[in-house]
């Protein structure tokens, strides 16, 4: 039975997916979804929010049926996916097979469920080759700022930037989250509800600023993030948990010849090859211990409203997973 907030998958679209090389999976774990916030968002707006951005688009499950003529995937395979097929708040789901990624046996399904969207969307921002004009290769000697450093994505970004040899500054809202961010590789943690993060970053970097800011908070942090970047720094604005940033005048970018990018997972794992490469690298890094995923909260599907409320109220850290 589909969860009531899931966007409707009609018999027609389900049949279409299935007959054009689809797989049906029984969910093992489902990531709660994205957080986005504007002035009117509250718990009662969950259904509206689900319809307004890409939500419930990440899960891990066991294949229970494959479409006619499909090769390469079998009943019993453990697969995960992110994006381009809403409706993961469900016990069973039909997916286009080319979005389903095999999950190695060493990876816990809850971890796989919470990993796909985050890392496909953001790993290239941190690891892609520096010959790209929009992303930067983080390397030793760099200093990076990660907002919401104890969040699902933030936690992984801190670990990865640290592993690449960068000095990592993280922002969080509470002392408890600060402890986690430290454990995840932050060399400096700023509690941005209590401290002015701009002043603190300038202090930490002796007024030099940072090479990269990973900003998923959006409205509340965007301007400050630009302010703490070095000349030719990279502003990676990949989310808007506090609301959409105001329009950015070109003069704000020109002031320091900055690079501004708004990456989306859909564009960094657009082809099957890119998807498999990204997922393979991430699973390998989890298996080898370079990355660890904190599934700090699990909820049943019937507790989805509570999960969203906790997410919106900044009560969560790490990843949040529904267990059907
Ligand atoms: N571009 C992409 O392809 C892509 C892919 C995945 C995720 N994302 C985005 O990345 C962001 C992080 O996703 P996530 O799942 O890992 O969530 P998350 O970071 O675990 O949760 C959101 C965190 O944002 C912080 N925050 C700051 N101001 C907030 C506010 N006004 N309301 C709510 N939270 C606020 C909170 O941390 P503190 O309490 O520490 O401030 C909160 O815990 C989201 O904005 C998501 O949309 C983008």
From TrEMBL:
Matches recorded under SUPFAM superfamilies: GroES-like (SSF50129), NAD(P)-binding Rossmann-fold domains (SSF51735)
Fetch the SMART domains from UniProt.
PKS_ER
Keyword Disulfide bond applies: no
Has UniProt tagged this entry with the keyword Oxidoreductase? yes
> Per its UniProt record, what InterPro entries does this chain match?
ADH-like_C, ER, GroES-like_sf, NAD(P)-bd_dom_sf, QOR-like
Q: What UniProt keywords apply to this chain's record, in alphabetical order?
A: NADP, Oxidoreductase
Q: What is this protein called?
A: Probable quinone oxidoreductase
Record-linked Gene3D superfamilies:
Medium-chain alcohol dehydrogenases, catalytic domain, NAD(P)-binding Rossmann-like Domain
What GO terms fall under cellular component here? Answer: cytosol
What is the superkingdom listed in this entry's lineage? Eukaryota
GO terms for MF:
mRNA 3'-UTR AU-rich region binding; NADPH binding; quinone reductase (NADPH) activity
Q: Which residues form the Enoyl reductase (ER) domain?
A: 29-322
Instruction: Give the signal sequence positions.
Output: none
